[in-house]
């Protein structure tokens, strides 16, 4: 069963790139306003099973004396409210960085793993001493299940990250509402055209619909999902 917004782009019904974290899969669905319930459940179950298998293998190959901090729990005097919002905001930061570096295609897209990795590292570095830094419901569930120990505050490791993912997707949609991606692409097209134009030529950049500019010579597709083209011309 698929729930799809009429304004959603003509893309696959679900996020099909590799995703080991339910929060990222969830936020991409929210961002696309395009939900496939069947595939969402399949991804979610597979992510939980994969996390449980990984934790079980790690636990089985680690000496019992070294099994410290196996589950996510609040410590160092962290309250439930602070722990919840810590997981909430750190997950929203990670998800927003993920969207901005992977959904906006440009020459630096191949570098996306670096900012995502550094963001994840920074989040764990900051939150480990307070919540044992989950920002991944599958990880929190797997460690508790394999260890057969669920704490009273286990719920914050579910609602916090999922809430943060929704906020990140909403913020990204808010940015797209003002066409920041098209404006950025138009500025880049202007600079490229001016560099290639003859001295004295005045270069103008037009942002038009794809259907209206389908016959334009030299039209450059910038945002196919929004059906926009950016064309350059010499006045």
Automatic annotation (TrEMBL):
> Mind telling me which Gene3D superfamilies this protein's record contains?
Glycerol uptake facilitator protein (1.20.1080.10)
Where is the chain membrane-spanning?
40-60, 80-101, 108-127, 155-178
Lineage of origin:
Eukaryota, Fungi, Fungi incertae sedis, Mucoromycota, Mortierellomycotina
Please give the superkingdom of this protein's source: Eukaryota
Protein name, as recorded: Aquaporin
An example of a GO molecular function for this protein is: water channel activity
User: GO CC terms for this protein?
Assistant: plasma membrane
Q: How does it sit in the membrane?
A: Multi-pass membrane protein
InterPro entries per record: Aquaporin-like (IPR023271), Aquaporin_transptr (IPR034294), MIP (IPR000425)
Chief place of localization: membrane
Tell me the compartments it is located in.
Membrane
The keyword Ribonucleoprotein belongs to this UniProt entry's keyword annotation: no
* Cross-referenced SUPFAM superfamilies: Aquaporin-like
Q: Which organism encodes this protein?
A: Mortierella alpina
Q: Could you tell me the keywords of this UniProt record?
A: Membrane, Transmembrane, Transmembrane helix, Transport
């Amino acid at each position: 069963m698929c729930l799809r917004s009429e304004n959603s782009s003509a893309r696959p019904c679900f996020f099909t790139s590799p995703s080991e974290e339910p929060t990222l899969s969830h936020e991409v669905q929210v961002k696309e306003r395009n939900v496939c319930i069947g595939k969402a459940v399949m991804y979610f179950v597979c992510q939980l099973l994969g996390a449980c298998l990984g934790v079980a293998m790690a636990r089985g190959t680690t000496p019992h004396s070294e099994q410290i901090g196996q589950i996510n729990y609040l410590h160092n005097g962290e309250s439930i409210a602070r722990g919840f919002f810590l997981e909430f905001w750190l997950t929203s930061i990670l998800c927003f960085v993920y969207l901005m570096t992977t959904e906006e295609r440009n020459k630096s897209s191949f570098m996306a793993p670096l900012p995502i990795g550094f963001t994840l590292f920074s989040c764990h570095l900051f939150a480990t001493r307070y919540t044992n830094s989950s920002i991944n419901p599958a990880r929190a569930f797997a460690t508790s299940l394999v260890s057969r120990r669920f704490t009273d505050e286990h719920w914050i490791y579910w609602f916090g990250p999922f809430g943060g993912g929704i906020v990140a997707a909403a913020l990204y949609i808010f940015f797209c509402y003002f066409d920041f991606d098209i404006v950025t692409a138009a500025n880049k097209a202007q600079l490229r055209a001016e560099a290639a134009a003859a001295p004295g030529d005045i270069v103008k950049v037009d942002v038009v619909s794809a259907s209206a500019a389908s016959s334009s010579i030299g039209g450059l597709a910038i945002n196919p999902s929004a059906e926009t083209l950016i064309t350059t011309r010499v006045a």
